[in-house]
Amino acid sequence: xxxxxxxxxxxxxxxxxxxxxxxxxxxxxxxxxxxxxxxxxxxxxxxxxxxxxxxxxxxxxxxxxxxxxxxxxxxxxxxxxxxxxxxxxxxxxxxxxxxxxxxxxxxxxxxxxxxxxxxxxxxxxxxxxxxxxxxxxxxxxxxxxxxxxxxxxxxxxxxxxxxxxxxxxxxxxxxxxxxxxxxxxxxxxxxxxxxxxxxxxxxxxxxxxxxxxxxxxxxxxxxxxxxxxxxxxxxxxxxxxxxxxxxxxxxxxxxxxxxxxxxxxxxxxxxxxxxxxxxxxxxxxxxxxxxxxxxxxxxxxxxxxxxxxxxxxxxxxxxxxxxxxxxxxxxxxxxxxxxxxxxxxxxxxxxxxxxxxxxxxxxxxxxxxxxxxxxxxxxxxxxxxxxxxxxxxxxxxxxxxxxxxxxxxxxxxxxxxxxxxxxxxxxxxxxxxxxxxxxxxxxxxxxxxxxxxxxxxxxxxxxxxxxxxxxxxxxxxxxxxxxxxxxxxxxxxxxxxxxxxxxxxxxxxxxxxxxxxxxxxxxxxxxxxxxxxxxxxxxxxxxxxxxxxxxxxxxxxxxxxxxxxxxxxxxxxxxxxxxxxxxxxxxxxxxxxxxxxxxxxxxxxxxxxxxxxxxxxxxxxxxxxxxxxxxxxxxxxxxxxxxxxxxxxxxxxxxx
Amino acid sequence: xxxxxxxxxxxxxxxxxxxxxxxxxxxxxxxxxxxxxxxxxxxxxxxxxxxxxxxxxxxxxxxxxxxxxxxxxxxxxxxxxxxxxxxxxxxxxxxxxxxxxxxxxxxxxxxxxxxxxxxxxxxxxxxxxxxxxxxxxxxxxxxxxxxxxxxxxxxxxxxxxxxxxxxxxxxxxxxxxxxxxxxxxxxxxxxxxxxxxxxxxxxxxxxxxxxxxxxxxxxxxxxxxxxxxxxxxxxxxxxxxxxxxxxxxxxxxxxxxxxxxxxxxxxxxxxxxxxxxxxxxxxxxxxxxxxxxxxxxxxxxxxxxxxxxxxxxxxxxxxxxxxxxxxxxxxxxxxxxxxxxxxxxxxxxxxxxxxxxxxxxxxxxxxxxxxxxxxxxxxxxxxxxxxxxxxxxxxxxxxxxxxxxxxxxxxxxxxxxxxxxxxxxxxxxxxxxxxxxxxxxxxxxxxxxxxxxxxxxxxxxxxxxxxxxxxxxxxxxxxxxxxxxxxxxxxxxxxxxxxxxxxxxxxxxxxxxxxxxxxxxxxxxxxxxxxxxxxxxxxxxxxxxxxxxxxxxxxxxxxxxxxxxxxxxxxxxxxxxxxxxxxx
Lengths: 656, 584
What we know:
By secondary structure, chain A is of the alpha/beta class. Chain B is an alpha/beta fold. In chain B, a hairpin with a 2-residue loop joins strand 14 and strand 15.
């Protein structure tokens, strides 16, 4: 077999598959979230528009930026303007936005999503100004400020062609009027009417920054895993290559040492992002060690926590990154075969992985002699049939083998005896997406993010009563408060936050007074919750914690595989007791029974699902016991009152 | 390699890979469990066998966790007991409170555990499925409400018997053990071997109790009730009365049967000798005279017959056409016996006491089971049902005097007796075949054909008979059979000589002594003892060859004529037909 330098081979591939560049283009966010918000109708509206107006414009698709609350998204590039991201572009509005931007070459009002990379120096003269009232007080004053600016400019700089545009989202919340100058991205916050004339004279006229208004806080987000999401067409290998995908693999192959790749991952401090946080490097090492004829790697894409959509977004937005991660894992552990275990409820993700696999196979990134390295590997997709428990490693393996998806006791661990009895390494989507970045940029670059034994970044899906439901990628150690408030704009309707649920049905609730805690595996555990796969559900004062506990428990009861008694019967019986309490018919004795069952489930359940199913109950009993007691003491009258109140608010199920 | 660790402070050294549960037994520590069966892989379902290792933060299952070097195990403390009790209460809350009317009352592992843990109150409301029982097979009753989902039956059905009738359906609290596809057991690949019922810890799978039918027949003045007992019943029945497995109670059983009101006591062992005459003749015809295909495969086991008809019907020509001893005896009891005694043949009501649930099905397998013009056997009771009848009858069983069977169809040889063991049919047949071929009996030191004895799943041997060598194979536990049959089929398809000349198959592990209708608590240890019970008796008997049984000689002389021909063919042989694996 002829072997070549993998890096040279990759460079050759990248140049062969170089994506075409277009002067003008439209790019629509076609992930599941975008599609649910109308991206498909938007796409056909765009096609029609381009045809009708004979616009010389290429229509492209991309994955999701993660701004779920702003879907559907369209990014537009015209001849003279830089690419601009527009949000909440409904098919009805797309024509005016597009025509404004493409034909008239001006920014369209009310849809612009400003960049989070705020500038601090006015290097280039300002061409346009974004304004947005973020005060959230009665009456949006954005329009008022826009005309004030326009008037001021007209009077002070009569020759100027400056445009003042109403933005949709600046990534800054509760900071009064926010103004961003383009293209420098110098951003002013808490701008008052009286500041307008100063801005016009000093910043626009004299090109000087007003230090007192300047927003200097850097964006708390850090996109490593989501590095390409939204920025490329996930169905186009060339675009992935152009953005450096497969470079981590090529570097690992070039070094010709799987142990080296494992060491790099170990040093990066990367831990499993699927929930338990097992050190990834160690997992790879443990799978590498045993001698076996065959080994397997599996990408666990059976994401199932209610409210979680990290893995789906990654797979839909950047499937090649995950495939690259799987290849690296395969190379590191000595496997030649990999599987994507994807839940069947993710049809778009499946389609994009399939496309990625085909494209990669076509150009030698999959199959025999990958990148001329002499190493061979192939991968295929296996669909999950909708059982949450199949995210558990041993159940997942059983499912791939064609058996009933029930867990089996460990040891033997999959790293020793996994799929068909061979050593098997199973990694979550997010873990695999991070691995290539680490091999490309080095362990140190990754480890510089994070804190303590939780290194790097973590993607969270923030939902519930939060202002901006979205994907967030932050360095480990960022506090929950920072995620909810500065990044996600706080709680809906300015309501009072009660707690944040993390870790899905296996997790617990972080009460308001603990929101400043830096998010790390250990800290969350100490609070009685877990990191989990990254779901964060925000709950406000209107939410009933007993209901929340019952909601999560019901999920586990429905998803219990039924194999072991503590989980099968315990979950069911505990749910009956919880429902009894929420009907106002409970007693203190019932709480005692609930606690006994919790103990039985935690200690005697076979797998993680059962062992952790009690967490939401234990957590709410720990922080919100008074709510349980209120039901018990208030009886049916209280329960009825509570129910009425809750039905007025948004139901939790809808929120997630 | 061995590992040394401490359990409750006691040092224990065991071979590597030994589970904590097994290791604990060596230091006289019993860890409670409901799902783990000694012979089966741990299913880890019940959660009662949790123990603490080291810090005790996690509680691994003793059944599924191997003891590791240096482990410090605590099996019992207040916390563990409390967790176990809470788990047991959960299991009970998913089980009907119906012990008094249950088939396992007084002999139930769940009842035992509940008793040990002193559970005196229903802390949780019972949530029990209202699915109707499945009684479609007539052999076994599936009571879904009593199932604790231990998985033993599923494992036995799939892994040990390779039948795949039972599986788990649905999930969560609705999980249930049932035939896949929601069909009835009779429509499933079930062969009615009853191993599921023998391994069930509760009353979820029990035999179809027909004792009431027998009581009714016994009080019917229009019926002359006769009875036969199978070889393996005599060495297992004692267990239901607290005796160790393997205790041979033949005399007391005859005596009890008379006191129950049976007019004539026959012994199936007599018919086993008869089967040997027919089957050995068949073998000699095929092996020496080339009349028919080889290997000859035994057909005494109705579960095995059903399995073959469903799964390997192309091999039907290899099957011995000889009926099982039960059906041979039934045919003679309704023809020869009335002819000899002058009793009205149409009043004879034949009950058979069998170790087997599939025997209930055999009665109606083909029309040839009515060769006497009416059902040759009217009803089958399993050993378990028989034990209950004795207890109901007020007979002080253990203190009964020993009696003899009726002389007509009751004499038997040691060869017939070991029919109850895996390898026994082979051994008995070889003893007679040797005589048929050479005209001489095996020398005394050669009578015990040890290579075909024991609990090994597949036993093969080459037995010199005159100047030829007979290659034989013995399999029990149907999962062991497939491999043999595939080799036979391959040789046949390639026109090669068969790998064996004679194959014995019994569906149940250990053979009939491990039958699905035997007293509860079966495991290899028990099977071994029951086998030994039969072998010891054979060893001591003067009569050790079927062809020397005087009553056998008499019945051929007076009634049947020559083996394989005429009346013998008509009454003692049967046929087979392909059957679909799924009836629906």
